[in-house]
Amino acid sequence: MNRRTVVGVVLTIAVMVLVLGVLPAQAQATPPTLNGQILTQNYIATNEPRLVGACNPDGTTTFTMTSNGVALGPYPGNYTEQVTATIGPQTGPIVPRPGTNPIEGSFGFHTGVVTKFEAAFTITSGSTTVTGTKHLDPNAVPVLNFPPPFTITNPTQENTGFCGEVNGTNPPEFPRDIPPVFGHFRGIDAATVSYEAIIQTTDGAFRDEGRTRVVIRDVCADILDDGVCNVPAAGGGVNIGAFGEVFASDLAAVEPYSTPGHVTGGGQVPSSTGADHATFALNAKSDGKGMDGNCNVLDDTTTVRCLDVTALVQGPGSATIYGHAKVNGSAATYRVDVVDAGEPGTADQFRIVTSAGYSGGGIVTNGNVQVHD
Questions:
Q1: Domain locations in the chain?
Q2: Which of 196, 358, 354 is nearest to 272 (CA)?
Q3: Within the chain, how many helices (H) and strands (E) appear?
Q4: DSSP per residue over 102-153, as a string?
Q5: What does the alpha-carbon distance between residue 188 and residue 191 come to, in Å, rounded to a whole number?
Q6: What is the pTM of this model?
Q7: What SS3 state is found at 18?
Q8: Taking a C-beta distance cutoff of 8 angstroms, is the pair 21, 307 a contact?
Q9: Contact assessment for residue 69 and residue 243, using Cβ atoms and an 8 Å cutoff
Q10: If pLDDT is split at 50, 70 and 90, which confidence band does 185 have?
Q11: Residue 299 host element (H or E)
């Protein structure tokens, strides 16, 4: 190759760079861990949440419940959590009756050891979704900085629970001036619980792990014996449905998260501008060698060119893909959500959201999406 040819090749490459453009590596915004995250619902005098289960103080009692409430901390918003918990024979000591804090104490009932605690939770915080699971972990260190109003001051109630029914015979710990009470008293303090969470943002998916402590109280005390535990206008009952939880991450920072997966597709979806249609093409893969892929979207006057794949989270028949893109030539990040509803693809879905403000997609009207096993 002579000098003139070398110069020509260099000039050709330079022109290609100018025409196609080369994006500098765009940093992936790293979200915070769940450290200090608080979940709380209906502290007092409400109907929810409730621990569902039949009391068996001499054997085992299993509770289930669903809590929907307020999320505070690094991911403010709303949450939902499904819990299953089991306590053993209630032969433990009676935790002193609570004062003004209904989270403390066992309301005069003997406690049993928590032998099982499992939960699945979702936190929705703006465009970020946190999903995770929890399980009882005897080796975990209890989270000590439980926030008010769920103050924990009695260490003897760690990993204990109670379930009691009262039908006019008050527990010995109740004040003597309280008339006969009817109803139920239930509670769980799951103090050593480990969690694993996936944090999905517009920049990608990340994982976090650590410890959490969950305290639940469900009290329906009916003094009037009218079958209603709601506090009447003139007094005469107590109704407490309380859920409180705090997280402590074991990681200094979240870690990128991806699953193995392979997604391909192409076709037409509704246009975001009302034009005839938008077109898309997609190929993304995540395996032991890393992640790779690209996509192209043409929607009226908007062109999106996906440059890479920074995360791919695949489940049965669906996947979410993250990466960097150019939107009409400007640097951006993207998130693509696809659904493979089976052949011939008439119910498949392709949706894209970018940090440049463009979003589009919907049901695939002509084409196909395949989420490969």
A1: 38-255, 258-372
A2: 358
A3: 1, 20
A4: TTSS-TT-B-EEEEEEEEEEEEEETTEEEEEEEEE-TTSPPP--PPTTS---
A5: 9
A6: 0.70
A7: helix
A8: no
A9: yes
A10: confident
A11: strand 290-299
